[in-house]
Design goal:
Layout: E1 8-14, E2 19-22, E3 28-41, E4 47-59, H1 60-69, E5 75-88, E6 94-107
Parallel strand pairs: 4-6
Antiparallel strand pairs: 1-3, 1-5, 2-3, 3-4, 5-6
Length: 114
Amino acid sequence: MSTIKNHVQLIGNVGQEPTITELESGKEVARFSLATNEYYKDKEGNKQTDTNWHTVVAWGKTAEIVEKYVVKGKEVGISGKLKTRSYTNDDNEQRYVTEVVADEILLLGSKVDK
């Protein structure tokens, strides 16, 4: 069971074009939002959708794959871990952000030309 500590797997659709940043070290980082949907029926039996948004961060080779093949609307599978970081905003308030750090990405759905 020690191998499944802090392990996340998601399948969803990319919500925006990924942003790719090259750091001073030459390493690339990719960031994008991922929408996952859960479906249920309400009291009247009507189908409802609950959408959750996740921020995904990919580094190195995984970021290169994102840069080449991932576009808005593309269905992808993500395997990685949760990471929470904090920062101080311009109003000197402490903020926390939880992101999915992707170790692997699986391209799903139909082929989308980039």
